[in-house]
What we know:
The protein is mostly helical. Among the domains are: 128-217, Serine Threonine Protein Phosphatase 5, Tetratricopeptide repeat; 219-281. It has 15 helices and two strands. It has helices spanning 3-20, 48-58, 63-75, 79-92, 97-109, 113-126, 131-143, 147-159, 164-180, 184-191, 204-213, 219-222, 229-245, 249-260, 268-280; strands at 31-32, 38-39. It has a two-stranded antiparallel sheet with strand order 1-2. A hairpin with a 5-residue loop joins strand 1 and strand 2. Mean pLDDT is 92; it is low at 18-26.
Amino acid sequence: MNSPLRLLAAVSVVCVICGLAAPQSTGAPEAASPTGKKFYARADEKGEIAEAEKKLAAAPTNIELLMALARAQAAAWRYRDAISTYTAAIKLDPKNAILYRHRGHRYITTRQFDKAVEDLERASKLDDGSYDIWYHLGLAYYLKGKFEKAAAAYERCRLHAEGEDALVAVSDWLYMSYRRMKDDFEAEGVLSRIKLGMRVEENKAYYDRLLFYKGLKRESEVFSDKLTDLEAATVGYGLGNWHLCNGEPARARDYFQRVVSGPYWPAFGFIAAETDLARLK
Length: 281
């Protein structure tokens, strides 16, 4: 970027910082469900946003510091602020695929699926070898009900999965995409790569779902009161989707309702449960 344009972009970033310096006080929602239920940010109890803003103020064109601020905002569920921060970063570095990936993720969180697809498709053109980009693009397609496109994106994602945690995460969404396409042959093919004893640390909820799909775990083993709020949203959506694909919409609706009655509204499972409940009406 030439220096005059970079200066203008830096001024824009400074304006973003000034606009976000004070904690939100208006009580404006971060997102809303299809039924109109509103979701809000939570307190930044550790002061991570203020600390990130302080560092960025000293170097307002530093992309890494902008990303650090956006991560701090997202940690407090201030996703619209995070989107603004990523937008400021994109003005400085418009060919940075990771910035579009992160902003696309936050568009998903705020239920702006068309904008998410636009960002993530652009990211995939800038970097077609990124697991994270294809993963989130697959999710954006899935949430829009474009299951064939979701499956294609997840197939690309699976090519770049490094380690069993990554394989498990993409396999779950890929399996669900094929089931929604009524392509049981491909769905079973996804499960064939999932085995007992895999080294899964971060994505145990996805792994448990996959083992249930394979008939290696009972439903009562997978979903219990011991789950965290995030795990309950993740597992609950998968079980609901499984029942939906097996011709039991009432049981699916029950799981989806249990998920959206929980507090973890940024979870992918929560967002997917909302969209499916809207389709079931």
